[in-house]
UniProtKB/TrEMBL annotation:
<dbReference type="InterPro" id="IPR043148">
    <property type="entry name" value="TagF_C"/>
</dbReference>
<dbReference type="InterPro" id="IPR007554">
    <property type="entry name" value="Glycerophosphate_synth"/>
</dbReference>
<dbReference type="Pfam" id="PF04464">
    <property type="entry name" value="Glyphos_transf"/>
</dbReference>
<protein>
    <submittedName>
        <fullName>CDP-glycerol glycerophosphotransferase family protein</fullName>
    </submittedName>
</protein>
């Protein structure tokens, strides 16, 4: 489309090896900015709870660290900021303070040097969450370069994860646009562009699909079996995942004793490198095949793990050659719906809980599940005893839930879903044309 794209790369990954032009974005946000960010998120969640008279926003908070004196001091500073910035005006002051804090640092100056040298027409931030994105975007705005950001995930806006401020915002759908304007009234409607998300685009690429025979041979699967996919969550979202996988394995054994011929493909959460599943995988090794996502880890944090291109193919063919998916509240419901495969949501407490304070109910109470039109988009597993019966129903009539699941998918994403990237570039062209016209008219 005539664009020259340079990745201003703040990840530890080498994008040049993938054939992309990149400039390493070196440096980090000021310590003060990070404290302001923490305060902003907590103050916003408190404000959302009051404004919408809904306690659910308190469940998005993370416990403060009290490991040492420095951590306690930082927490005290954050709580002081939260107490003095309670309303919309206070939140706006925190946003201004974050930018002001970044303008005083060497990182800001380095970003300014790069932008003055490169002179881009536009800066596009692919994720609204990172505190390290504030400085480069603030520099761009100070230099009158248009900025935009993409809302990273379907559950992000209620969580108060809007860390950056840009001139334009790209969202998945009309539903997400309404959310954005609801939570951030300082953003005006013309600033918001509906594009869909590139997240699901590879599913529509037929070149990435393998034959059943080739996929089974590559991963040592039994061609005579039918496979159920268990899609794992991260340890924070679902600490009891190993117990759920264990319950599913016993259900599969019960069904096989009745004449079924089933096994399980276990696909763990890509950022979960823990050994918490090892016992269950060993106990049921005759019916569970673990096929790990092809992601590369370069650090201890979740954002230092990124997918390799090969994982697109792996995920697609795991879905294509599974009968259905079992998980707790994952967006994999949409990935499987694209392939006309049903989803079964785990919806019960296990007896031996890993974490006493955790509950599956907390997950389904999150705001993004309110986008579910009817509740009939998935099969609900309300106890471990229900699993065999619900699995049989889903296997016998897989299309029973698909129409509703696809309606949900079309509500949270824009169609045609395989054109999201193209729509993003078209919107960027519109933004660039509008800003060029404004400049010429000055």
């Amino acid at each position: 489309m005539g664009w020259e794209v340079i990745f201003w790369n703040h990840t530890p990954f080498n994008l040049e090896k993938l054939g992309y032009k990149e400039i390493k974005l070196e440096g980090r946000a000021n310590a003060k900015t990070d404290l302001l960010k923490r305060a902003k998120i907590e103050a916003e969640l408190n404000y959302f709870s009051r404004k919408f008279k809904d306690p659910v926003y308190q469940t998005y908070k993370f416990a403060n660290s009290h490991q040492n004196l420095i951590a306690k001091i930082k927490t005290g500073i954050v709580q002081g900021l939260v107490a003095t910035h309670k309303d919309e005006k206070g939140l706006q002051r925190l946003r201004i303070k974050m930018k002001s804090s970044e303008r005083k640092g060497a990182y800001y100056q380095k970003c300014k040097e790069i932008l003055q040298e490169e002179k881009p027409d536009l800066v596009f931030c692919t994720n609204q969450r990172p505190v390290n994105a504030i400085a480069p975007l603030t520099v761009a705005q100070d230099l009158k370069i248009p900025t935009s950001t993409f809302i990273f995930s379907w559950d992000n806006l209620p969580k108060a994860t809007m860390v950056v401020e840009t001139d334009y915002y790209f969202v998945w759908s009309e539903y997400m646009k309404a959310e954005l304007l609801k939570y951030y009234p300082q953003i005006k409607e013309p600033q918001v562009h509906i594009t869909g998300t590139p997240q699901f685009e590879p599913h529509y690429n037929g070149d990435l699909r393998q034959s059943r025979e080739d996929f089974f041979k590559e991963y040592g699967l039994d061609y005579t079996k039918k496979y159920i996919c268990f899609s794992g969550d991260d340890i924070t979202t679902s600490p009891d995942d190993p117990a759920y996988l264990n319950d599913l394995a016993y259900a599969i054994k019960l069904l096989n004793a009745k004449g079924h011929n089933l096994e399980i493909i276990f696909r763990r959460c890509p950022v979960d490198f823990s050994n918490r599943y090892d016992g269950v995988l060993e106990k049921h090794r005759e019916i569970i095949t673990s096929i790990a996502p092809i992601w590369k880890k370069t650090g201890d944090n979740w954002n230092s793990v990124l997918p390799k291109k090969e994982d697109l193919k792996l995920q697609i063919n795991t879905i294509l050659h599974s009968e259905l998916v079992v998980n707790l509240g994952s967006s994999m419901v949409f990935d499987f719906a694209i392939f006309k495969k049903p989803c079964l949501y785990l919806n019960y407490e296990v007896k031996a809980k890993t974490k006493a304070s955790w509950s599956h109910k907390k997950v389904y109470d999150f705001v993004h599940f309110r986008s579910m039109p009817t509740g009939k988009e998935v099969f609900w597993l309300n106890s471990k005893e229900e699993i065999p019966e619900k699995l049989e129903k889903a296997l016998k009539n897989p299309m029973q839930k698909i129409e509703k699941a696809l309606e949900w998918y079309k509500k949270i994403n824009t169609f045609p879903a395989d054109k999201a990237s193209e729509r993003i570039w078209r919107k960027l062209e519109i933004i660039l044309d509008q800003n060029t016209l404004k400049t010429e008219n000055r």
